[in-house]
Amino acid sequence: MPQHYSVDFENNTVKLPKIEPIKAVLHRKFEGELKTATVSRTCKGCYYISILVEDGNELPEKQSFSESTTVGIDVSIKDFAVLSTGEKVENPKYLKTLLKGSKYYRKEFQENRKVQRTEKKLNKD
After folding, report:
1. How far is CA 125 from the centre of its chain?
2. 32: three-class secondary structure by DSSP
3. How far apart are CA 31 and CA 54, in angstroms?
4. Spatial contact of 14 and 5, defined as CB atoms under 8 Å apart
5. Cβ contacts of residue 55 below 8 Å, gap of 6+?
């Protein structure tokens, strides 16, 4: 199904059907047969275009793997990672200090909330 669009690298424009050429930031040049173009809009109003190109290169072969070399990884807070082999990877040392600091800030925040609530009640009267 042809989509009838073109890309001009010299002028950095993309020509879509039924509208005039659009200025675009082209990140890299590509060669090959143009397949599809998908235009998407973000919630901030920015537009992006994704262009699918058939370059003629064959896909690489899938690498085989065995179950004996496969390892499962579980990430947790106490240990950085626990492998399915039973090996534990310790957390970086700075994590403990960050957790202590967050405890201090949580306590400070709670005290400030209490003060703000009290002041709010006093100001109502």
Report:
1. 50
2. coil
3. 8
4. yes
5. 30, 31, 32
Reply yes or no on whether the pLDDT at 125 is more than 70: no
pLDDT of residue 1: 44
| Segment 22-51, tens digit of pLDDT | 899 988 888 888 888 888 999 999 999 888
Give the separation between CA 89 and CA 95, rounded to whole angstroms: 13
Paired tokens of 119: 């002041």
Distance of CA 48 to the CA centre of its chain: 16
**And the tokens for 53?**
């190109």
Q: What is the mean pLDDT of the chain?
A: 85
Domain ranges in the chain are 6-54, 92-125
Give the Cα separation of 7 and 23 in Å (integer). 10
